[in-house]
Specification:
The protein is α/β, with parallel strands linked by helices. The chain has 26 helices and 29 strands. A hairpin with a 5-residue loop joins strand 7 and strand 8. Helix 13 packs parallel to helix 14 and helix 17 crosses helix 18.
Length: about 850
């Protein structure tokens, strides 16, 4: 199929969805206007993969894994990867009402048309969204009901280390590192498509791959009391499935041109994985066990990749990702080099949650050189005794010393993470948590000006493949009682307290260690209407209670019951690499409050992951020659930045689907486009330097314009034509620079006659009466504002009311004096119709002419 036809089909499909955008919350979630999307004729490839994230766009695009796999697949010349995210309930309702399937962002293709649909399973409370996406995408929910033409539904991510509650809905799961494994799966699918083999034979082929778990080839059997008696493998080839390990992190090359969203996302910055795995051995932390061994990225690889990605994205903040970033062997050298190279470019570096004892004054000083992005510390437990139980060898003096250094350096905010309900926790431990938090709060309050403190307390959830996998979880009543205690004790000015909803923690505990019988509960809850259970405002506990009752299962059986060593666990046949006997010994050591050292510092602890040949810890040191190679200066501003500084006025058009970008999103798009275009931006002074940009009044969401304006200050007076060309090369579809000019000095604020065209819906007609309108007879427009309603006379503000075509109205509004008239309010007033009638009107601002004398 040629590319012209592909594009025409995608456009036709997209137009149906575009018509829904004015009717939903955050329409920019569904635009797909990202920068750096590969130029591909999407449905011409032998293998097509839909990378699915069962949450909204802004959450899914904040996850690094989906971006890595997207880049890896799209580098192949025989495969293409597209993306799809969970629709919010308002969009789901519209899709169902209009009988439209869930489609990918890139080509508007339904999920059922792909060869592989790969779900990223990061959180147990996203499972109902998985079912919703499958059904909306036209794929039968159960693997057993899919025929040969249906895609392979593949799951990956941390939840696959116990995927039993969702096993009937998936064809296969990828355990462990997926970079190489996904390509191997795609090759198997490609070969199968060219054969006459049936779907079962394909699953048999996939099951031969290291790291692939096909649940249909394992059958659990149960005792009368609900526990598992044994798990029977249906194939002699695979009795236990071992996770896939990428021996070296350099084998996973970061994207050279990462996707840059045009809409705001949760972690809206450049993200780089510098370390995979952790050897600290915190006994509650599943990631610390399933991602072993530790593999560090070399500093040279990091810095060269970062340089390329910054140029391709325009980000001004980078986050260095690791489970314990402070343990990265060359963190100090890397921070120094980053600041030396990019401080003149105002690049900020953010560090994820830090382990107390790894954050020192040198790191604080380096991060402080550009702007204060914030620090998060995770003591987890309040008492020294309980920290020994969880293998967190930090002391209270260490924590308070770190806090003092952060606050003294001028950081306005510090975040502390704790857990409640940890094994062996007592009332004294909870009081110790409060006492420690208040000591930090006192340090914050004693600063001038006073600093702020955020304390977050989550409920401990026992996870598979950890030493605490045999432990019980707090009951709902206990969670609520503890939260009341913390809410009362931590009520202080300048201290913000956050917590997890108890019912969410309970559900997470159920599905974290649940068995295959829970699939029916999940299906019932989905059919009852459960969606987005990880969002506190969307969780519907009463529906979940009905789902458990309908399937004669009790959530307490899964979360409040301790397991003994001999019990067969639902994930017994899945191997994360860590020896179960090692986990049991760690559990016993926890009960004795005995610490286990970090294997990087005191030698191998015999957890079972490493073979000490191919699979072993990979630690990196920054060599002197690497240091000199990467320590190149960044973009240097002139010694006298005021010498050539010049303000420019940039007029641009905002049309098509770009009209669904909010004002703040549009500002961000231009800010990053200016950076990618390497234009000589001037920055503000102070703690948080930002480009000197100024935009006009916000264009209402969903409205188009050909005459929007922004002003930008450059430290060099480039030719206006060059600015326009360079900037247009970096803008997404729908945004276009139409004129650049130097700003006149002391240019006063002016009034404008702004012309609009509105294509109206049938509900505003018949128009016979409209032709008799006399604006002098129109009643004043009542417009709402934050200060209350006010009446605006239209006699001097509304100009040239003309019916251009039977459904297109043209009119002018005088703007820039005494506030502006909202166009949709005006249309409602003219036609005496409610707001929802004009919500879908296509409104375009066509011109803006200065008016003298006003």
């Amino acid at each position: 199929m040629n590319s012209t036809r592909v594009n025409r089909q995608a456009t036709a499909a997209s137009s149906k969805y575009e018509a829904l955008l004015p009717l939903v919350r955050r329409p920019s979630r569904y635009l797909g206007l990202e920068i750096n999307v590969p130029e591909k004729s999407w449905d011409t490839y032998p293998v097509r993969i839909a990378l699915a994230f069962p949450d909204v766009y802004e959450v899914g695009m904040s996850h690094l894994g989906i971006l890595l796999l997207y880049d890896i697949v799209n580098r192949l010349d025989w495969a293409a990867a597209e993306r799809v995210f969970a629709p919010w309930p308002d969009m789901e309702a519209l899709l169902r009402a209009h009988s439209l399937p869930l489609v990918t962002l890139e080509s508007a293709t339904p999920l059922s048309a792909f060869d592989i649909v790969g779900f990223s399973l990061q959180y147990e409370l996203s499972y109902t969204n998985v079912l919703n996406m499958l059904q909306l995408g036209g794929i039968p929910l159960r693997s057993a009901d899919r025929h040969r033409a249906m895609p392979v539904v593949l799951g990956g991510g941390p939840c696959t280390f116990n995927p039993e509650p969702v096993a009937p809905f998936f064809d296969a799961f990828a355990l462990g590192d997926g970079e190489e494994l996904l390509i191997e799966v795609a090759k198997k699918v490609r070969q199968w498509k060219n054969s006459s083999a049936n779907r079962f034979e394909l699953l048999e082929e996939l099951a031969q791959l290291d790291g692939i778990y096909v649940p249909a080839f394992f059958e659990p059997h149960y005792l009368a009391d609900g526990r598992i008696s044994h798990i029977v493998p249906r194939s002699s080839h695979r009795v236990r499935v071992h996770k896939r390990i990428l021996p070296q992190l350099e084998a996973s090359r970061p994207p050279g041109k990462p996707l840059v969203p045009t809409t705001a996302i949760v972690h809206d910055r450049l993200r780089f994985e510098v370390v995979r795995g952790c050897s600290r051995g915190c006994r509650f932390c599943q990631a610390g066990y399933i991602y072993r061994p530790v593999r560090e990225r070399s500093a040279a690889d990091l810095l060269s990749s970062l340089q390329q990605a910054l140029a391709a994205t325009g980000y001004d903040e980078v986050s260095l990702l690791a489970l314990s970033i402070g343990d990265y062997s060359c963190i100090h050298q890397v921070l120094r080099l980053l600041m030396k190279k990019y401080s003149s470019d105002h690049l900020a570096v953010s560090l994820p949650s830090l382990r107390v004892g790894t954050l020192d004054k040198e790191m604080i000083a380096e991060v402080d050189r550009v702007r204060k992005t914030g620090f998060t510390l995770a003591p987890e437990a309040g008492s020294h005794r309980l920290r020994h139980v969880i293998n967190k060898a930090i002391s209270e003096p260490e924590l308070l010393e770190t806090v003092e250094a952060v606050y003294q350096a001028g950081w306005p905010l510090l975040k502390l993470y704790f857990m409640m309900g940890l094994p062996t926790e007592t009332k004294e431990d909870r009081q110790a948590l409060v006492d420690l938090a208040l000591k930090v709060w006192q340090q914050a309050a004693s600063c001038r000006p006073a600093r702020r403190l955020h304390v977050s307390i989550s409920t401990f959830v026992p996870k598979p493949h950890t030493p605490f996998q045999w432990e019980s979880q707090m009951s709902l009543a206990e969670m609520r009682h503890c939260l009341q205690f913390f809410k009362k004790q931590l009520r202080r000015k300048g201290l913000s307290f956050k917590w997890n909803q108890p019912y969410q923690s309970m559900l997470e505990g159920v599905f974290s260690r649940g068995d295959r019988r829970l699939a029916n509960v999940l299906l019932t809850a989905y059919q009852l209407g459960c969606r987005f259970d990880g969002w506190s405002d969307q969780l519907r506990a009463e529906l979940w209670q009905r789902a458990f009752a309908a399937n004669h299962l009790e959530p307490e059986f899964y979360c409040e019951r301790p397991r003994d060593r001999l019990e067969v666990l639902p994930w017994e046949h899945l191997d994360c690499g860590v020896d179960p006997e090692y986990l049991w010994k760690e559990y016993q050591k926890a009960m004795k409050q005995t610490l286990t050292p970090d294997c990087r510092q005191q030698g191998c602890t015999s957890c079972g992951v490493c073979d000490h040949q191919q699979v072993r810890p990979q630690l990196r040191l920054l060599k002197e020659e690497e240091s000199q190679e990467v320590a190149m200066p960044g973009q240097i501003q002139p010694s006298d930045p005021h010498e050539k500084r010049c303000w420019f006025v940039i007029r641009y058009a905002k049309q098509g689907v770009a009209r669904f970008l909010s004002h703040l999103e549009t500002v961000n798009v231009f800010r990053r486009a200016l950076k990618r275009a390497a234009l000589p931006l001037c920055y503000s002074e102070g703690y948080h330097p930002v480009p000197r940009l100024s935009f006009g009044n916000a264009l209402p969401l969903g409205m188009e314009s050909r005459v929007e304006e922004m002003e930008v200050l450059f430290y060099d007076a480039l030719p206006p034509e060059e600015i326009a060309v360079r900037l247009n090369s970096q803008l997404p579809t729908g945004l276009e620079v139409v004129q650049v000019s130097r700003k006149e000095k002391h240019q006063p604020n002016r009034a404008y006659l702004v012309t609009y065209e509105a294509v109206l819906s049938e509900q505003c007609w018949p128009m016979a009466g409209f032709l008799r309108f006399n604006k002098n007879d129109l009643a004043p427009l009542r417009q709402k504002s934050k200060k209350g309603d006010k009446e605006i006379s239209l006699q001097n503000r509304l100009r040239d009311l003309v019916l251009v075509t039977p459904d297109t109205l043209r009119f002018g509004l005088l703007e820039g004096i005494n506030g502006n008239i909202r166009v949709r309010d005006l249309l409602c007033h003219l036609f005496e119709v409610p707001e929802e009638v004009v919500a879908t009107a296509r409104i375009v601002k066509t011109s803006a002419v200065p008016v003298k004398g006003l």
